[in-house]
């Protein structure tokens, strides 16, 4: 029987896939009314474990104790009946329905045979007020920001009398303001006695929110600690099995005299009068708030959106990328912000993804040189240490960090000279971040040039040689390495009228 102190107990959970042990004898308990953080590197088993709780994954062995009952596996219906709800990174909402209709999706309130929309709106308003959320229940979900869509997901769970809410990287897509609103909502949930399992790679969130932290590594349970009794260094050591002496690996000065890229008075995709240059072997960082125009600039340079005026010079020659294929042929690569939607084909193998940009070179007529294709994949899997059972593994089965490495490998195979990283470590754990940083350093040592877009201030300052700050589609500041400061960057990011500083 369930201990009355706990809302959930997982005992000796094991889950295997062909060639992979995802969970190996993992036990975990969640107290009533606590925020319990779950941390570990990508591939540690966090997602598999929470899916066992929701019924999305059936464990090979072990038991799940909740609501005074013991289960050897859950189903989605059983999870809901026992007050367990999960908010995944990809929301389960219908954009063309209102917030109220989404909250009662599949459980519509009826007056006889008719759906009582007025009652659903009233009940939705009560939930929003309880959580201190200001959303009009009649608003279509597609017209809500990502942060408010997440609040609708939370409200839906509350309306189903949730006892345990599991949140998987909930702050990843949010702005700073939306993240703070999320924290306030989580505090409110805790005050109502709702337990929360909170998964995040962001250490500051773990220490801001959680009561206890459980660490997984390579599918194994490592340790559970009281948050107030631990620190970042200890958690990192538990997560990666080693200490990270520095957050950023040492890097040589690789900047050469040759200017690789020069942009003059560029307009397009919302950006206005953008001018800058970057030298071969340089890492040029782009700071700014979400929507400042950084991703929009990357899309123009990569040929996804046409410029309306201005000039782009690559190695002194004026270019006009008309589409991504044209940009790739010119030696420009983009690792997009949303790698799962735009950077990698999850249903294809590691081998196919790596060779995607160069299949024309690998083919004679319509026949692909499969031997050369495999050799190229094996080369980059080894060179940048992609953790995969084989080059034929589907990309969707890799961890986030290794998916990012596959995206990078395809641009290395294409011999790109200018590589644009848009939020390169979003959703990637602290150990994998270090590996990505080492790869970026190796690229500039090979003479590659990097444009680095990042909303993580430490990352931006720790990896860049120079930083340009954008606000409302304009460059509002330029900082050299010896003048990097978070305060200065934020001032430039929030004040478009501020003078540009060398």
Which descriptors would you attach to this protein?
single chain, 502 residues, Rossmann fold, 3 domains, 6-stranded mixed β-sheet, 18 helices, disordered C terminus
Query: How would a textbook summarize the main sheet?
Result: 6 strands, mixed
**Measured on Cα atoms, how large is the radius of gyration?**
24 Å
Helix content: 25-40%
The overall average pLDDT, rounded, is 87
- Ranges where pLDDT stays below 50 over 5 or more residues in a row are 496-502
What overall form do the CA principal axes indicate? globular
Total domains: 3
Return the CATH architecture of the largest domain: 3-Layer(aba) Sandwich
CATH topology of the largest domain: Rossmann fold
- Sheet-strand content, in percent, reads 25-35%
Tally the helices: 18
**CATH homology superfamily name of the largest domain:** P-loop containing nucleotide triphosphate hydrolases
Instruction: Indicate the CATH class of the largest domain.
Output: Alpha Beta
Q: Give the strand tally.
A: 24
Give the N-terminus to C-terminus distance in angstroms.
67 Å
Provide the spatial order of strands within the biggest beta sheet.
Answer: 6-9-10-3-11-12
């Amino acid at each position: 029987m369930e201990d009355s102190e706990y809302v959930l107990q997982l005992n000796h959970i094991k889950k295997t896939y062909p060639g992979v042990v995802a969970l190996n004898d993992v036990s975990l308990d969640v107290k009533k009314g606590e925020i319990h953080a779950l941390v570990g590197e990508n591939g540690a088993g966090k997602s598999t474990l929470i899916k066992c709780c929701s019924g999305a994954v059936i464990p090979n062995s072990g038991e799940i104790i909740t609501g005074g009952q013991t289960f050897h596996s859950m189903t989605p219906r059983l999870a809901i009946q026992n007050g367990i709800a999960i908010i995944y990174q990809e929301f389960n909402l219908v954009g063309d329905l209102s917030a109220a209709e989404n909250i009662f999706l599949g459980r519509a309130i009826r007056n006889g045979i008719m759906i009582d929309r007025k009652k659903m709106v009233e009940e939705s308003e009560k939930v929003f007020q309880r959580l201190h959320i200001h959303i009009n229940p009649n608003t279509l979900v597609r017209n809500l920001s990502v942060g408010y869509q997440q609040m609708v997901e939370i409200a839906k769970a509350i309306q189903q009398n949730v006892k345990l809410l599991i949140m998987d990287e909930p702050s990843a897509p949010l702005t700073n303001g939306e993240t703070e609103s999320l924290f306030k909502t989580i505090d409110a949930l805790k005050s109502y006695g709702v337990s929360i399992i909170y998964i995040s790679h962001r250490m500051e969130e773990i220490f801001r929110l959680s009561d206890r932290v459980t660490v997984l590594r390579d599918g194994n349970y490592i340790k559970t600690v009281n948050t107030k009794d631990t620190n970042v260094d200890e958690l990192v050591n538990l997560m990666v099995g080693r200490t990270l002496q520095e957050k950023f690996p040492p890097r040589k000065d690789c900047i050469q005299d040759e200017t690789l890229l020069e942009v003059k008075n560029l307009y397009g995709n919302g950006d206005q009068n953008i001018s800058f240059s970057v030298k071969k072997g340089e890492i040029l960082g782009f700071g700014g708030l979400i929507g400042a125009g950084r991703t929009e600039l990357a899309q123009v340079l990569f040929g996804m959106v046409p410029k309306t005026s201005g000039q782009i010079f690559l190695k002194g020659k004026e270019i006009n990328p008309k589409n991504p294929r044209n940009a790739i042929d010119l030696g420009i690569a983009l690792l997009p912000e949303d790698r799962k939607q735009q950077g990698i084909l999850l249903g294809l193998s590691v081998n196919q993804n790596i060779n995607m940009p160069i299949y024309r070179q690998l083919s004679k007529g319509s026949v692909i040189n499969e031997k050369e294709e495999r050799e190229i994949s094996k080369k980059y899997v080894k060179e940048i240490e992609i953790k995969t059972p084989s080059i034929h593994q589907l990309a969707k089965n890799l961890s986030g960090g290794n998916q990012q490495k596959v995206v990078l490998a395809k641009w290395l195979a294409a011999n790109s000279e200018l590589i644009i990283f848009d939020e390169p470590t979003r959703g990637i754990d602290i150990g994998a971040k270090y590996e990505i940083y080492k790869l970026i350093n190796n690229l500039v040592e090979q003479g590659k040039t990097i444009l680095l877009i990042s909303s993580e201030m430490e990352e931006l300052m720790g990896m860049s040689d120079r930083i340009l700050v954008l606000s409302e589609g304009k460059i509002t500041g330029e900082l050299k390495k010896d003048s990097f400061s978070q305060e200065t960057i934020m001032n430039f990011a929030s004040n478009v009228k501020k003078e540009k500083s060398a």
